[in-house]
Amino acid sequence: MLKRIIALILILNVTACAELQQVVNQMPQGGLGNAEIASGLRQALDFGIDKQVSKLTAEDGFFKNELVKILLPEELQKVDKALRDIGLSNLADEGLKILNRAAEDAVKEATPIFVSAVKEITFADAKNILLGADNAATQYLTEKTKTALYDKFNPVIKNSFSKVGADQIWENLINKYNSIPFTNNVNPDLTDYVTGEALKGVYTMIAVEEKEIRNKVSSRTTDLLKRVFALQD
């Protein structure tokens, strides 16, 4: 009896998957081919970069945006607390701000790399993405570009640290912390940390714009976006 129940469950699962794929394949395309649907999705991502990611490059683009503000890594939170406890709150505040400044500077220099990566994407499964979650295209983009973009962002972040003085400020902060009696020395890789957080910020803001376009007809500002995203309404 148990074997029969298991077999029945497997048959139902296979049938359900087949039916879902059939729905996807039979989705009305309103005269649009996969290439045009893919173009619409790429345009949505391009708009996300132009409208949302560009905000990150302004002063306080990270620091005053609660969606993407870079906070201290766990290892440095104790540094922050210890400095504040001994009356160095201003120094701690400056250290936090400078991490966000470096990210703002890096995104400004790296955005063209990101735009190029978007242009090269081909959505073989364009219809599946169109029928996916509010951030399905962003998730796909993240999966396809994160490693390459990290490799591009990392040296930019490192140069940005030098440009805005983050390396010297944090070296000073960490040295002060390490000199406090009865504390364990820390030596975090801030370049790696801020690179990762900057990438998260970029993808977060693209997802914001994708969700807007998917859910608000008024955000579909071109004929292509209107026609393509009408298919998912």
Automatic annotation (TrEMBL):
This is DUF4197 domain-containing protein. Pfam families: DUF4197. Keywords: Signal. InterPro entries: DUF4197. Residues 1-18 form the signal peptide. It comes from the Bacteria.
